[in-house]
Description:
By secondary structure, this protein is α/β, with parallel strands linked by helices.
Amino acid sequence: xxxFCDFDGTIATDDVTDLILERFALPEWRDIEARWEAGIISSxxxxxxxxxxxQAGRDEIDTFLQRVEIDPGFPxxxxxxxxxxxxxxxxxDGVDHFIRRVLALNGISGVRIIANRLVTTExxxxxxxxxxxSDCRVAAGVxxxxxxxxxxxxxxxxxxxxxxxxxxxxxxVFAKGKLAAFCRREGIPxxxxxxxxxxxxxxxxxxxxxxxxFHPLPLSQQL
Length: 223
């Protein structure tokens, strides 16, 4: 069993990349964000251009990341997954270094991370996209539907636009925010959660059933 989780706005309570940009990037990053929101450029193009505007070193960024808060229920959820033999995989259109640093600061290890790769150069940073696909429906740096393909039994926890394609293929979806609205609009069976305590409660309920499955809940059972 695999538990795929988004990171920004899901495990982390805020979008960590946006926090970094607000603190360290040249103000042009907001203009680039507006072009993405208007559909002029893709998510990957947006992030690639924004990361180049960061005016800080890794040490400065790492110190700042100490301020990032995570969902208070995620550590308990991770411990449950460890005990039950469920692998937790973070699938994020964010930045791998930010994710690893935040997890380490919260004492969380043993999590596989699929994300965009931060590369340090003599002049700053750039972003590499080892998990991009040219046919990705949402033109993201990380194609989440490709990451989930062939994964076997799994469930997905997310909150935003980059999670839409993953929700279509997951065996079970835990959703909030934009993802929950998308699932309702598209008729995708899902369970609405507020935090990982809710996800843990529902996972415990499913695991304790006579035939635990994590198959999609009927629409009538959505929270």
